[in-house]
């Protein structure tokens, strides 16, 4: 081994030792790992079915969310429910003490995204199940 190669090896060794002393457990500069974070909003849906119609949230024509308790309804039935259960219509989800008001029932942009993600996840799960069953047979 040449003297220059030995010198380079010693420098690398010293660099590694210094790195371990000052930055133990962290990657060396240039060796950083990039974390990929996958998030989903699917868990934000509190109820999977409209408590008034019994329809799954993916089947609702006009889904709305009650802003105070975050439960999801079909728009027309919940508006009708609020107007007929005067003076203080309670949320029909068992155990929810919130009082419904027409102005607090909205279709926010996040709700439609959450429902779309749920539909996509269901379709993906069905496709993967079909592939697994195909390979088993």
Summarize, please.
By secondary structure, the chain is mostly helical. Helix content is 42%, strand content 7%. It has a domain at 42-131: Herpes Virus-1, CATH 3.30.40.10.
Q: What is the succession of H and E elements? A: HEEHEH
Which class do the helix and strand fractions yield? mainly alpha
Strand order of the largest sheet: 2-1-3
The CATH C-level name of the domain at 42-131 is Alpha Beta
CATH fold-level name of the domain at 42-131: Herpes Virus-1
Instruction: Please report which band the strand proportion falls in: under 5%, 5-15%, 15-25%, 25-35%, 35-45% or over 45%.
Output: 5-15%
Helix content: 40-55%
Query: Given the C-alpha coordinates, what overall shape results?
Result: rod-shaped
How far is the first residue's CA from the last residue's CA? 61 Å
Subcellular location: Nucleus
Family: Belongs to the NSE2 family.
Main location: nucleus
GO molecular function: SUMO ligase activity; zinc ion binding
Task: Explain how this protein is built.
By secondary structure, this protein is mostly helical. The chain has a domain at 42-131: Zinc/RING finger domain, C3HC4 (zinc finger) (Herpes Virus-1). Helices cover 42% and strands 7% of the residues. The protein contains 3 helices and 3 strands. A 3-stranded antiparallel sheet has the order 2-1-3. The longest helix is centred in the last third of the chain and has 28 residues, at 109-136. The protein is rod-shaped. The protein starts with a helix and ends with a helix.
């Amino acid at each position: 081994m040449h003297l220059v190669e030995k010198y380079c090896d010693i420098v690398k060794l010293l660099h590694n030792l210094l790195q371990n002393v000052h930055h133990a457990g962290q990657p060396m500069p240039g060796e950083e790992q990039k974390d990929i974070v996958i998030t989903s909003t699917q868990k934000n849906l509190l109820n999977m079915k409209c408590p008034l119609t019994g329809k799954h949230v993916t089947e609702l024509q006009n889904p709305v969310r009650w802003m105070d308790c975050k439960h999801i309804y079909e728009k027309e039935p919940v508006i009708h429910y609020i107007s007929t259960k005067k003076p203080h219509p309670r949320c029909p989800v068992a155990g929810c003490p919130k009082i419904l008001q027409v102005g607090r029932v909205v279709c926010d942009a996040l709700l439609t995204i959450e429902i779309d993600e749920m539909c996509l996840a269901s379709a993906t799960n069905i496709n993967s199940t079909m592939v697994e069953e195909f390979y088993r047979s």
